[in-house]
Design goal:
The protein has two domains: about 90 residues, no CATH class; about 120 residues. Helices cover about 80% and strands about 0% of the residues. It contains 14 helices and no strands. Helix 6 runs antiparallel to helix 7, helix 7 packs across helix 8 and helix 7 runs antiparallel to helix 13. The radius of gyration is 30 Å and the shape is extended.
């Protein structure tokens, strides 16, 4: 029994020493894993619109059939939904669900938890919260779509550079559009690759499919790229200079947008810094003020 305890204790001590040495001298990390940790998290919309299954799809389809041709049907943000990878049916189900939640939660709180208040206050607050919840899906969708478009434009700059390299190496207009999308990673390239894939587009030209995708997701810069490729494919025009100019223009737009964001954030810090300085001056001047008034 004593020998067993000694061996067990020795094994535990040895394991502890091994773990300490391992932590002090770690093995070199894998390069791919290290780069993935440093890369910022990005959203990856699906290549195709995801249609919900089950009861939600039935309710969404029923709502879509009822509002077809009306003003509500026109107001559905289909381009933002297509960019994010959500269906109109899912959006139509989410809107009334959030509105019902906005009506139910304040009603339960006013009925069970809150003290009695005039009906005007309870009804007004309930309707205001319901209105906020009704608008919440649109606000979230616009924010996500805006970020996704910015990511798409950044990927489009690299896509233009790769098209230019492919054309310079002798590739045809169609092949120059297809090859970069196949070899690059990222949700934007996956979306482009699914659009220009010969097996998916059939007999249609890749630049026509890019123009259709640009109209579907609301990215004007992609439509310009499709127009440049169409001139090369139908008229045999030299497009290297056009691609270079377009890529440089997109880079300038991204730089201007980044500078504008930096300036706006700098301006938003002006008020907190001024208040901090004011508070510091009050803290320094209060003892002297108290001494003068006290005397």
């Amino acid at each position: 029994m004593t020998i067993t305890l000694v061996l067990t204790a020795g094994g535990l001590v040895g394991l502890g020493l091994f773990l300490c040495v391992r932590e002090l001298f770690p093995a070199p990390p894998q390069l791919a894993a290290a780069l993935d940790r440093f890369a910022p998290p990005t959203r990856r919309p699906a290549a195709d619109v995801v249609v919900p299954d089950g009861r939600a799809a039935q309710i969404g389809g029923w709502l879509a059939a009822r509002i077809t041709g009306t003003a509500l049907d026109v107001r559905i943000p289909r381009r933002d939904l297509a960019l994010i990878g959500k269906s109109s049916e899912e959006y139509l189900v989410q809107k009334p669900a959030m509105t019902g939640l906005g009506l139910a939660v304040p009603t339960v709180l006013w009925t069970l938890l809150m003290p009695p208040v005039p009906w005007l206050i309870s009804t007004g607050s309930t309707l205001a919260y319901a209105a906020i919840m009704f608008a919440a899906p649109d606000i979230a969708l616009r924010s996500q779509a805006k970020e996704a478009r910015e990511e798409f434009k950044v990927a489009l700059i690299a896509y233009l550079d790769l098209i230019k390299m492919a054309r310079a190496s002798g590739a045809g207009p169609g092949e120059a559009l297809e090859a970069p999308a196949r070899v690059c990673r990222g949700w934007a390239f996956q979306r482009i690759a699914a659009t220009v894939d010969p097996a998916a587009r059939g007999t249609r030209d890749p630049w026509d499919e890019l123009a259709r995708l640009a109209d579907q997701i609301g990215v004007r810069e992609l439509a310009d790229t499709a127009a440049i490729a169409q001139r090369a494919g139908t008229q045999g025009a030299a497009i290297l200079d056009s691609l270079t100019t377009k890529a440089a223009s997109l880079r300038e737009q991204q730089l201007a947008a980044a500078l504008a964001r930096a300036k706006s954030r700098t301006e938003t810090m002006t008020l907190p810094v001024a208040l901090s300085v004011l508070g510091y001056l009050i803290l320094l001047g209060y003892p002297a003020y108290a001494r003068i008034t006290g005397s």
